[in-house]
Amino acid sequence: MHEKAKTRVLLADDHALVRRGVRLILESEPDLDVVAEAGDGAEAIEMARAEAPDLAILDIAMPRLTGLQAARELSRQQPDMRILMLTMYDNEQYFFEALKAGAAGYVLKSVADRDLVEACRAAMRDEPFLYPGAITALIRDHLERAREGERPPARAITDREEEILKLVAEGHTSKEIAGILFISAKTVERHRANLLQKLGLKDRLELTRYAIRAGLIEP
């Protein structure tokens, strides 16, 4: 009987030390193989295109593109690939955003040694992986929605505008942003102008403050 194919994993985190630790956890398992590493969300998209992994493990807080933004793009580009979010934050908002972005699970870094392998296997079986706090959050959210008669919260800006907002706030030029997002510089400028108008902001400094408040970049 031939050996079962290993799950090919892409690992994205902007801290090399975290990547090394996670790689050690995964590669001690016979069915998991880390085939690519990325240091930010944009690089994760490039590596996923090049390597076509079965599973991407994405840190939420990364430069250029967050893990959530990368997850949205990867869900569009490679719908068959499974995605897990890795985070330091036990944060309900991030958790729900992760589910909306197409992630199969949400793993806290503090307990990665306990949960991550199980989460990888659950994702490959097409089962969601939820840590205990997330289940509580889901139930509470469901009850609140039922009480208030299902009000989906309106988001002021689109996913693409959010990606551009983060990159502008990090100091990237329109040309650099165009390269990272595979769009034209002209399109970037149009989105940027829309953003300022929608949010009532006048310059990059105000955009940056907004991006910090929205949790897109770390202060």
UniProtKB/TrEMBL annotation:
InterPro entries: CheY-like_superfamily, NreC/VraR/RcsB-like_REC, Sig_transdc_resp-reg_C-effctor, Sig_transdc_resp-reg_receiver, Tscrpt_reg_LuxR_C, WalR-like. GO terms for biological process: phosphorelay signal transduction system; regulation of DNA-templated transcription. Pfam families: GerE, Response_reg. The keyword Phosphoprotein applies. The modification 4-aspartylphosphate is found at residue 59. The keyword Phosphoprotein applies. One of its GO terms (molecular function) is DNA binding. PANTHER family: TRANSCRIPTIONAL REGULATORY PROTEIN NARL-RELATED, TWO-COMPONENT RESPONSE REGULATOR. This is Regulator. It comes from Streptomyces abyssalis. The lineage of its organism: Bacteria, Bacillati, Actinomycetota, Actinomycetes, Kitasatosporales.
